[in-house]
Amino acid sequence: MRMRSGASSAAGERFCMSRWTEIGQEKRCITCGEYWPADAEFFEAAKKTRDRLSPRCIACIVEKTWSSVLVAAR
Ligand SMILES: [Zn+2]
Question: CA–CA separation, 71 vs 3, rounded Å?
């Protein structure tokens, strides 16, 4: 019988949420959870994602908030 070690609830990459507002499309940062305009000014360009924007806002990338989150999640 196998046992799972640790909490392996593979944090899905399905957080890429976006919505349309009066000013246009907004995208939710997976790190801070805030909505920002889906725009290169707020999200880094990324080729791997469908909308070609990084799932994290530039502010989080600059502050590397996500790396500390990952460490804390261990
Ligand atoms: Zn953010």
Answer: 24
